[in-house]
Design brief:
Mean pLDDT: 95
Number of domains: 1
Number of strands: 7
CATH superfamily: Peptidyl-tRNA hydrolase
CATH architecture: 3-Layer(aba) Sandwich
């Protein structure tokens, strides 16, 4: 059993923020694989079904980014999911826009959602870091991640999401380096 987590903030005005890229990935996975209707459970919006012949739970925490770990801990304790079977999709400022890097553990690099997850479940889960780039001007990082994607970025985001979904079986089998290179080379 695999838990797929998309990080973001649950307010309607946050929907197209750079910080909500994890929510967008989960929405696309739900649609592509026909997962169940989203239900509010475990302080998040939960869906279930099968992806790449594996039983999955997919959740978008409603605890806001900075408290994402609370939701995830409740869910993995209830369903007895191993931390190693958790895959988190999130934005990353330190990666060029559109590039993907998957890894296990590591530093939170100032990402409050990742810091919260590390605090509540440890670091032995997989992370799919989706590059959003850095602000081009002197904009504060906090303002940048809460800014909406522009039209060009939204088009590119559709391609990124498609590449992730087309390669998801590699990710589910925890071949993280192969997943990253496959997605980035499409």
């Amino acid at each position: 059993m695999i838990l797929l987590v998309g990080l973001g903030n649950p307010t309607p005005d946050s929907e197209n923020n750079r910080h909500n890229i994890g929510f967008k990935i989960i929405d696309c996975i739900n649609k592509k694989f026909g997962l169940s209707k989203q239900k509010p459970k475990f302080k998040g919006l939960l869906t279930t079904g099968n992806v790449a012949d594996q039983k999955v739970y997919a959740i978008k925490p409603l605890t806001f980014m900075n408290n994402s770990g609370i939701c995830i801990r409740e869910l993995i304790e209830y369903f007895k999911i191993d931390v190693e079977d958790v895959i988190v999709f999130h934005d990353d400022l330190d990666i060029e826009f559109g590039k993907i890097k998957a890894k296990i553990g590591g530093s939170d690099a100032g990402h409050n959602g990742i810091a919260s997850i590390d605090k509540f479940i440890g670091k032995d889960y997989s992370r799919v870091r989706i590059g959003i780039g850095k602000p081009k001007d002197k904009m504060e990082v906090g303002d940048f991640v809460l800014q909406n994607f522009d039209d060009d970025e939204m088009l590119r985001l559709e391609k990124i999401t498609t590449n992730i979904i087309e390669s998801i079986s590699i990710l589910m089998n925890k071949k993280l380096d192969l997943f990253s290179s496959t997605v980035n080379n499409k």
